[in-house]
Amino acid sequence: MNKANNDLTSFADHLDDQYGKRGTAIREQYEEEFESFRLGTMLQELRKKQGLTQEQLAVKCGTTKTYISRIENNASDIRLSTLMRIIHEGLGGHLKFSVDF
To answer: Do 15 and 27 meet the contact criterion of CB atoms below 8 Å apart?
Structure first.
């Protein structure tokens, strides 16, 4: 390892420094917000991959363009039933879950 790499910090260490260790209130808030961001980004990528506008996706799954936009921009909590409808009816996919501890 060269001297320049000695000053590098891993992303995990950076998160610990910025938001505290996992289990602290600030870190858990960060993790929750990051997961919401990831979900919005994932839905946006899937929508674009299928060549759909927000309006077209909204019509297919029975919601509004504004709501799709809010989800994609991490400005709205999303109900599980709505997420399932967007994935299944809007995008033609199937939602799978996993839980990590």
So the answer is: yes
- In whole angstroms, give the CA distance from residue 45 to residue 68: 12
pLDDT range class, residue 5, cuts 50, 70, 90: low
- Residue 50 belongs to some domain of the structure: yes
Query: Which tokens is 98 given?
Result: 């996993």
Residue 77, SS3?
A: coil
Contact 71, 42 (CB under 8 A): no
Domain tally for the chain? 1
Question: Counting Cβ atoms within 10 Å, is residue 81 exposed (0-12), middle (13-18) or buried (19+)?
Answer: exposed
Could you tell me if residue 101 is inside a domain? no
